[in-house]
Specification:
mainly beta, six-stranded antiparallel sheet, five-stranded antiparallel sheet, 1 helix, 11 strands, globular
């Protein structure tokens, strides 16, 4: 048991689970932002602004705590325009145990053509040029928040080498042709499972 044993067997993870980096975005935790040739839509932390004349932004944050990261949180046409904007985490220790990354994301694309996107990458801070893709979001979620989990299996498959000085970054792009691209990030956490 199971029926196709021994070619397949059940597995049970053993160890404690610790949240090494919880972030509901209510406090400044050291994230940094960059504008990469975009003409609008820089990442900002705050309570979502609801503009009845711009129906592309979330009505609230994802976890009910109040604040989240958003691409230009203001009234009017405030989406990412003609380029990329980036949100980068502080250094996070991912050197112990099996690492899992959770986050909620908002991605409003009025043209889901696989040109507009939210790219998620990780690297060791000591090797700033070696970023590895761990997720890519290219579908329109309407006005809903969605949840993403990146598992230890997915991190290994991507070839990520974990260390005590890891960073993760979220890059949102509005490519050609120009279209509506709004994004958000909330309820971010890094958990590890191991024997501590």
């Amino acid at each position: 048991f199971p029926a196709d044993a021994p070619s397949r067997a059940f597995a049970f993870p053993v160890g404690d689970v610790r949240v090494v980096f919880p972030d509901d975005v209510e406090l400044g935790r050291g994230w940094t932002t960059r504008i990469l040739n975009a003409t609008g839509g820089a990442w900002q932390r705050g309570v979502p602004v609801t503009d009845p004349h711009w129906p592309h932004d979330p009505m609230s944050d994802s976890d009910g705590s109040g604040q989240c990261w958003l691409t230009e949180n203001d009234f009017g046409d405030t989406d990412v325009d003609d380029g990329r904007v980036r949100l980068v985490s502080p250094i996070i220790d991912m050197s112990q145990g099996e690492v899992t990354i959770h986050y909620d994301y908002f991605l409003r694309l009025d043209v889901a053509n696989r040109v507009d996107e939210m790219l998620v990458e990780m690297n060791d801070f000591t090797r700033p040029r070696n970023w590895t893709q761990v997720a890519l979001h290219v579908s329109d979620g309407g006005l809903e928040w969605r949840t993403q989990t990146i598992t230890p299996v997915q991190l290994r498959a991507a070839g990520v080498t974990l260390s005590s000085e890891m960073k993760i970054r979220f890059t949102v792009r509005d490519g050609n042709p120009q279209s509506v691209v709004e994004a958000g990030l909330d309820a971010f956490s890094v958990t590890v499972r191991g024997c501590f």
